[in-house]
Design a protein that fits this description.
Layout: E1 2-6, E2 9-13, H1 23-33, E3 42-47, E4 55-58, H2 67-76, E5 82-87, H3 97-102, H4 110-130, H5 132-139
Parallel strand pairs: 3-5
Antiparallel strand pairs: 1-2, 4-5
Helix pairs in contact: 1-2, 4-5
Amino acid sequence: IGKGVIEGEKVLLVKPMTYMNNSGECIREVMDYYKADIDDLIVIFDDISLEPGRLRLRPKGSAGGHNGIKSIIAHLGSDKFKRIKYGVGDKPKGWDLADWVLGKFPAELYPALREGNKRACEAVECIISEGIESGMNKFNG
């Protein structure tokens, strides 16, 4: 867990140490411990349907086949939390999906991923300071 302040708001950066399919357990425990509201939650997760480094912000929604998000929805009892989908691109032919999303990306993707990392940080700051709608207007596209 990392702690900080963005735009005067206390923030926690949490990376579950569970398997992705059990991410909801960790998120629920952290939210209960810090007495955080679901409105305070922003989840950043990989999306193979987006080009590497591309972002898509959403105020809520289904899991869309992502097992980590499915777990979070199940443990929170709601899909009404903000999220940032982070594009990693589709797996190359012959690759296992888990190897693609958990492994080391090819060097040719690094520039797009570095830019995506920068924009994801900016998107979090924007959501906190201006709201999800503003973030969607600035970062979806």
